[in-house]
Design goal:
single chain, 9-stranded mixed β-sheet
Amino acid sequence: MISQFFVLSQRGDNIVFRDYRGEVQKGSAEIFFRKVKFWKDDGQEEEAPPVFNVDGVNYFHVKVVGLLFVATTRVNISPSLVLELLQRIARVIKDYLGVLNEDSLRKNFVLVYELLDEVIDFGYVRTTSTEMLKSYVFNEPIVVDAARLQSLGPASIFMPGTKRMPGTAVTKSVVATEPGGRRREEIFVDIIEKISITFSSSGYILTSEIDGTIQMKSYLTGNPEIRLAFNDDLGIGRGGRSVYDYRSSSGSGAVILDDCNFHQSVRLDSFDMDKTLSLIPPDGEFTVMNYRMTQEFKPPFRINPLIEEAGALKAEVIIKVRAEFSSSITANTILVAMPLPKYTTRASFELEPGALGQTTDFKEANKRLEWGLKKIVGGSEHTLRAKLTFSQESHGNITKESGPVSMTFTIPMYNASRLQVKYLQIAKKSGTYNPYRWVRYVTQANSYVARI
């Protein structure tokens, strides 16, 4: 049961606040923000965990497009349940407002409070279904211009083809109508994969895994049945024989998913035969399928770190990053980080000649090197050199006191698993449905680590 729900900006401003039970003291939002902003673990500043307790109050939070969605309670409740609820509340609000940011929340606070009162009643969850809420919520959203939206929203990048959707195609409300009272009949599909890879010091892959999600956002009236087709060589489970049998031991498909789960509306009647899913999509954004894959795949980046002593109180770090994907693809917002020995006092950096859009920093508080790259084109290689100064001589191996090197990134229109959506077919024929090439693929780093 939830005592309070509130949404804070990055500055700590209280944008939305609802107290359902009156059992948590006033000022909880300020207490929470101070705790998160100045979180320290073992005397070092770190990012606050998603769940923590202060003076008998449990705080749960998730960050969505820079906003903090927070719930409080005094009772012992499942953390995963509350965190999932916060994600779903954010998704419902986005479905209704179209754009989820501070401006849209402030302009639509009446609609947001109406949604919250229907989603949670006296601290108990009633429903998080966008479709069911339509029967109880009647306020119209105030449209907010999404041109400056910086978040990685669904379907902002589309496959090339004869038709292209504008970038704001899915940043509209599921309940708002087009000028003239018409609704645009559209549906969008995202395949988002988060990859985890650990490299050995010699560059070999020690562990690798893909956590994938297929998301849809539907603006189709009448909720027609659709069919979603995947690769012909797709298999699920070690045997790849049946979607219901995960215990088989030998695989034959080119793309083998270890396991997966589906939205409640998905029917698997013909999956084994032609690799298609049938479903009646609910209104708004929802997850069609989650999957996990440990089959070998080609990593998008290779990281080669090296650290060498350069004197009694000095050392040099060399980090090389090579993009292993096609030159037609570009990775964005790359950050390479490396923990340094605790007695490091200074770091000076040297970038390759002509480097553009790259930043370097030495975080003295937690002794960490950071290298940011705005973008990396496939097939290219980039190198960073850092000269370190120590306050004392190393009495051990500097390599053991440094690293590992971690990397975060986003690669639009690339998926490591090679899972593909061949086509989406709408069973109900209608002249108002306007098909586009709508599938977007995105790969992100979940845990990308190289040992030194």
